[in-house]
Amino acid sequence: MKKTLTILGSTGSIGRQTLEVAGHLDMKVLALSADKNIDLLEEQIHKFSPALVAVYNEKAAQELKTRITGSIDTTTRIVHGMEGQIETARESGADIIVTAISGGAGLEPTLAALKTGKRIALANKEPLVCAGNQVMQTAKKHGAEIIPVDSEHSAIFQCLADKSHNLPYPANYKNIKKLILTASGGPFRGKTRDELEKITPEQALKHPNWNMGNKITIDSATLMNKGLELIEAMHLFNMSPDEIEILIHPESIIHSMVEFTDGSTIAQLSNPDMRQPIQYALTYPDRQPSLTKQLDLTGIKTLTFEKPDNKTFPCLSLAREAAKKGPRACAILNEANEKAVELFLNKKINFNDIPAFIEKALNDV
């Protein structure tokens, strides 16, 4: 029998790639949700024929409903608002729910999805950053699986896969010395703070290795993305901030590593392609041929690693500081970062103002 799928955030980068993987795996898509990109959502409706679609923006939802009314190839029901997002997470009946809504707006739908007791392919880190304890406790209470989709957390999960069958989380992993999250370093690796002062949003959105949404791409440029991933990893793998190390790895071939107490380190390698961790979350514990190009080890000349430049990119230190302070600080960190990124993309503040904005918000914690 075909596995069935719901995708929360289907018009974003992860959502689009998930639909590509779903088509490759011949999975049935039962429900989709988006913010307001109804042009793409309409295309997805006609291609995948979901029974239910949620559009956060009410005006956009009404327009989409008008567009598809009377269409001979769909009977899709359209709902709107946060209530619609939650209904889509809760009522679709899918085997797997992919949560890929960007930012803190993904928290309530993620919690609703967890309460179904189904598998959650978690592709947005903000719910764990803002309310990690609540998310993990909800998963445990309702017997839901959380399979991470972020390439770094998927890599760690894959390194620990033989020990991960006691889902739901949090699992109690033994004999681990530390987790090592890798980061490409973003488009500005090696630059000084003075050089970053005049960086434009257009420059910051040009990531050297990954094709991602605007917000996460800016987070990668500031290294805040890695800071948020540190907090996410704490909750997913039941680790402390001091047990998680960040290394810059420009080639983006090793996606993360686990170092054990006996001196062994296990790494997960693949070409930088989000379709690989997406597919693993959908097929776990099985593996199937994927759309990701096979890794040619003979074509890799070097694999390099370096410590992050915390002085030039202070967001990583701010995230680690918030992780040690606790849940309230993490929530403030996330909210301040979302606002700072928005201001930068709208050219209201400079690139170097992003960490200053966040630090000011954290000072009161």
Task: Describe this entry's structure for a reader.
It is a single chain. Helices cover 44% and strands 16% of the residues. With 365 residues, the protein is of the alpha/beta class. It folds into two domains: 4-148, Rossmann fold (3-Layer(aba) Sandwich); 176-271 and 299-362, no CATH class. A seven-stranded parallel beta sheet has the order 4-3-2-1-5-6-7, sandwiched between helices. Strands 9-8-10-11 form a four-stranded mixed beta sheet, with helices on one face. Strand 3 (52-55), helix 3 (58-68) and strand 4 form a beta-alpha-beta unit. Helix 6 crosses helix 14 (327-345). The longest helix has 19 residues, at 327-345. The model has no long low-confidence stretch (mean pLDDT 92).
Please describe the topology of this protein.
Elements: E1 4-8, H1 13-25, E2 28-34, H2 38-48, E3 52-55, H3 58-68, E4 77-80, H4 81-91, E5 96-99, H5 107-114, E6 119-122, H6 126-142, E7 145-148, H7 151-159, E8 176-183, H8 193-196, H9 201-204, H10 214-222, H11 224-237, E9 244-248, E10 254-260, E11 265-269, H12 275-283, H13 315-325, H14 327-345, H15 353-362
Parallel strand pairs: 1-2, 1-5, 2-3, 3-4, 5-6, 6-7, 8-9
Antiparallel strand pairs: 8-10, 10-11
